[in-house]
Amino acid sequence: MQKTLLLLLTIVLLAAGNTCVWSQSAESPETYISRLSNEYAEVSNRNLEYLQYSVHSDDIALIEQKRVALIQQIQKSYSNLKAIPPYKGDSKLRDEMLAVFEAFIESFNIEFKEVNMLKQNSKNSFEAMEQYLNASNAAEKKLDVASSRAIAAQVAFARKYNIKLTEDEEKANSVRILNNLNNYHRAIFLRIFKVAKKEAEFSDALNRQSIPDMERTRRDLERICEENLLFLERMPDFQSDTTYRDAAKNYIRFYQSIASDGYKTLIAVLRKGDKRTKEDVDAFNHVIQQCSEEGPALNDKVNEAANQLFKKHVPKPVETRRI
Asked: Apex CA 13: angle with CA 12 and CA 18, to 5°?
């Protein structure tokens, strides 16, 4: 349904954006906090690189290579953090950072489940996608909590030992843009998913020729389209870019029209039973053709708009500047 980017943008950059001034002493608190922060930086850099290639490159083998490198870095950094002893008996900072890496690992496990889910047939994939979205939301909340606690522990450690923390403004700005992009994409994707899920329920009822279920899901679809169109009408652009939002609106408008008109035709024809005329059959087939041709075409436009949105706002990796 969508490229596997939903979770990556959140994972990308929940690492603390702070750095500290190095000290000459190997046992200084400045050196200690830098050792921990450097493990964060390694994972963050690998994850950004993976995201950049997954967005801008079509080389599946190369993307897989970057994914494997990211997983290896997470595992390596987790082991490195765990091996660092507490500073003067104070393990708070290290333990909070370990919790973030554990959340990273959980989040990537969910991502891999999504990839496998997308290989299933359409009905199961809708059910699995719903489970994925619920699981990813829970994982992201856990990641948010762990990251916030780690940043708070870093600040507390710096205050305790009078360390001056500085922020990389360029990186911090990139983090804000990417996290905003992820939130923007997720908000629109959820609207599309709700419509697609209800449309799949109608298709299932149609295959069973269950008129009561068809009428119920038709009304639900009509209502869901109206609600989500209203949401999208009020949604602002993303840095003057409206393409993805507008493609989603066109997709939902199509199913709103089908629900209020075309699906009524299908139900009316089925109710006639043996008394159907040739005109009824032609009208029935016309709606089916619309759904099989126009619906997927609009879905393709939504997916392409999403891909272009990421390509426009996710920086390219150095090696692929000419892609």
From this structure: 145
Residue where the block lists tokens 């150095």: 318
Evaluate if residue 166 carries a pLDDT over 80: no
Four-CA torsion 43, 48, 50, 54, nearest 10 degrees: 160
Q: How many CB atoms lie within 10 A of CB 303?
A: 16
Q: What is the mean pLDDT of residues 141-148?
A: 83
**Alpha-carbon distances of 120 from 128, 167, 237, rounded to whole Å:** 9, 44, 33
CB of 193 closer than 8 Å to CB of 1: yes
Q: What's the pTM value of the predicted model, to 2 decimals? A: 0.78
Distance (Å, whole) CA 184 – CA 245:
9
2, 76, 181, 250 from 305: Cα distances, Å: 11, 36, 13, 12
Contact 146, 96 (CB under 8 A): yes
- 3-state helix, strand, coil split of the chain in percent (to 5) is 80, 5, 15
Compute φ and ψ for 128, nearest 5 degrees: -70, -35
Q: Can you give the residue ranges of every domain in the chain?
A: 8-167, 186-320
Q: Do residues 15 and 144 touch, judged by C-beta distance below 8 A?
A: no
Tokens 């879905």 locate to: 299
Burial of 194 (0-12, 13-18, 19+ CB in 10 A): middle
Confidence of residue 4 (pLDDT cuts 50, 70, 90): very low
* Mean predicted confidence (pLDDT) in 78-87: 92
DSSP string, 188-257: HHHHHHHHHHHHHHHHHHHHHT-HHHHHHHHHHHHHHHHHHHHHHHHPPPBTTB-HHHHHHHHHHHHHHH
269, 134, 236: which is closest to 142 by C-alpha? 134
Half-sphere exposure of 228 (CA within 13 A, CB side): 28
